[in-house]
Amino acid sequence: MSGKILIVDAVATNRIVLKVKLSAAHFEVHQASSGRAAMAALRDVQPDLIILGAALSDMSPAELIAALRARPDLAAAPIVALLPEDTGAARIAALRAGADDVITQPIDERIMLARLRGLLRQHLALQDMRLNAGPDRAVGFGEAQAMALRPGRITILGVQMTEAMALRTRLRSACRHQITALPTGGPITGAPGAPAADVFVLMFPAMSEDRALEVMAELRTSPEARHGRIVCLLPDEGRSLAASLLDMGASDVIAGSADLAELMLRLDRQIQRKQSVDHLRARLHDGLRAAMIDPLTGLYNRRFAMPFLKGLALAEEGAGPGFAVMLADLDHFKQINDRLGHAAGDRVLCHVADLLGSSLRECDLVARIGGEEFLIVMPGADGTEARRAADRLCRRIGEAGIALRGQPEPAHVTVSIGVAMGQPQPTERRAAAHVDALLEEADRALYRAKARGRNTVTVGARPAA
After folding, report:
1. CA angle at 64 for the pair 77 and 105, rounded to the nearest 5°
2. Is the pTM of this model over 0.85?
3. Which GO terms describe its cellular component (predicted)?
4. Where does 193-234 show beta strands of DSSP type E?
5. CATH classification of 300-459, choosing from 3.30.230.10, 3.30.70.270, 2.130.10.10, 2.102.10.10?
6. For the segment 160-190, what is each residue's pLDDT rounded down to a tens digit?
7. Could you give the CA distance from residue 381 to residue 353 in angstroms, rounded to a whole number?
């Protein structure tokens, strides 16, 4: 099955015709003849997309759309209005009522299926993001859907710049969005480092089909446009291209002359979708960062460091140099907390974390894996290089003064470090066992450094098994 579609229409003929066409395209189709019947059907069916007829016996399309959107599980589901005739006024009314798109009778089956495939593709991609984000961040998408539309960025890409400039003038008179017009084939951000548009509007005049598809393919594969929406404007004679452009990833296609009010509704809808997805993506990124980063010091945490170390250990034997693993522990840290308070202790931890990060190579990993314990991994380092690096860390931390609020003199701390040397392992099992052995050896070396008076470095007596 390609997805579940619920058809809500009071006219039985419309439901039957649509069901035949959609079933032939491998969609799972469900039907309802009224708004109340549709809401009842939702107890048994979770549709991926809903098609609404223009006239229902018990409620208006706007009322039914509002009822559907009030359900958290359908807040972002695509809703398509089925119109009995193709007029600008009818399309505008449906879009203002909250429909994501419209299809009109007589139905152009190829374009209709392309529109539905495009809406479902975007919806399922969004569902995957919500699943990866987890329940808390998924709720954030519902919040984003309800947020007021913020001014966005629209870039018009025109094959003929006179038409693109004319459209820019029309749009600027009707909206608060930032509008830019650029020629196709050049940079799509206007200037190096400039932010990419939320929506790209491709203007295709009467031209060859091959050239239009080429321009669309170039934009779809541009890194700057990977998160942007694409709206294609076609002349009447280019209507046959609509299905191909939608299947190539266009978010919307408008064929023929577009009323300014309808065009703005469609562009606003695309910008709102983009802003909603950006909101969810940011929350997802924050969640991933929180899973990997120690919130106090900004260093990586154990959850990130262990897979990194195991990945470094997994390689063909003899494929490359070994690596160093260090465990560093602050000396007498409990006394700082007891004497000066936990706020001072946190300040000391942050200062030491900064010193560790700034004293190592860019390729090295530093992670906080315990209260005052840090893990350091140095890829490609031999024993001599690792020992020199550890000695340098001890010296820098011991010499640094840490200014603490309310204390007349800078505080000083020292660190003890245990070092173990690792070698690549050919299998995941051997790599995991090797990492465990390395950490045990580094911990024993750290214990010996503490026993020798602290503020010193001890290297493991033998390579980890």
Report:
1. 80
2. no
3. plasma membrane
4. 199-203, 229-234
5. 3.30.70.270
6. 899 999 999 999 999 999 999 999 888 887 6
7. 21
